[in-house]
């Protein structure tokens, strides 16, 4: 038995038939070829699968696709606009916030949630926001610097718009 869902992903509307038990991460990766959300642990421990649902960071490996019905989902692929990296993505590039890159999409999406709610977080607040994301390579120092870089860039951009 499959269920019909309608979800907006990265600004594009999708209507699909999904199995009731299909996880959102597999729907994104297999049905839509949006492979930015990584499958790491299937237990919501590592955060590699983090996406935004209606602006809030969610672990897509423990969220059913049917739970996304009627929502707006943003994946790491949806942050860049017109070929220009989002400031958070650019921050990870500028400050070397990745090594192997496996955790990076989840870190970026968790950072997006943080900076939407707190545009000028302290180092401690950044580290707290990343507690649900696990990185085996970096030691988090450059990840924190990447998010600080992005926060500053977003503040400059917003100040220029006002």
In whole angstroms, how far apart are the ends?
A: 52 Å
H/E element sequence: EEHEEEHHHH
**Largest beta-sheet details:** 5 strands, mixed
SS-based class: alpha+beta
Share of helical residues: 25-40%
Number of helices: 5
Search tags:
5 helices; alpha+beta; 15% strand; five-stranded mixed beta sheet; 5 strands; 162 residues
Could you characterize the architecture of this molecule?
- This protein has 162 residues and is α+β, with helices and mostly antiparallel strands.
- Helix 2 packs across helix 5.
- The model has no long low-confidence stretch (mean pLDDT 95).
What does the secondary structure layout of this molecule look like, with pairings?
Elements (H helix, E strand, L loop, with lengths): L2 E7 L2 E7 L5 H8 L18 E4 L2 E4 L12 E3 L12 H8 L9 H14 L5 H7 L11 H21 L1
Parallel strand pairs: 1-5
Antiparallel strand pairs: 1-2, 3-4, 3-5
Helix pairs in contact: 2-5
Brief summary of the model shown:
This protein is α+β, with helices and mostly antiparallel strands.
């Amino acid at each position: 038995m499959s269920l019909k869902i309608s979800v907006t992903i990265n600004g594009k509307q999708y209507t699909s038939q999904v199995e009731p038990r299909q996880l959102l991460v597999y729907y994104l990766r297999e049905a839509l070829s949006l492979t930015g959300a990584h499958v790491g642990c299937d237990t919501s421990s590592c955060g590699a699968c983090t996406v935004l649902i209606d602006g809030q960071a969610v672990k897509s490996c423990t969220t059913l696709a049917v739970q996304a019905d009627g929502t707006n989902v943003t994946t790491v692929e949806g942050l860049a606009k017109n070929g220009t990296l989002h400031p958070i993505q650019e921050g990870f590039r500028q400050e070397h916030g990745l090594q192997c890159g496996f955790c990076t999409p989840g870190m970026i999406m968790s950072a997006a949630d943080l900076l939407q709610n707190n545009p000028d977080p302290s180092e401690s607040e950044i580290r707290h926001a990343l507690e649900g994301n696990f990185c085996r390579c970096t030691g988090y120092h450059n990840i924190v610097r990447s998010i600080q870089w992005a926060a500053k860039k977003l503040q400059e951009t917003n100040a220029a718009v006002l």
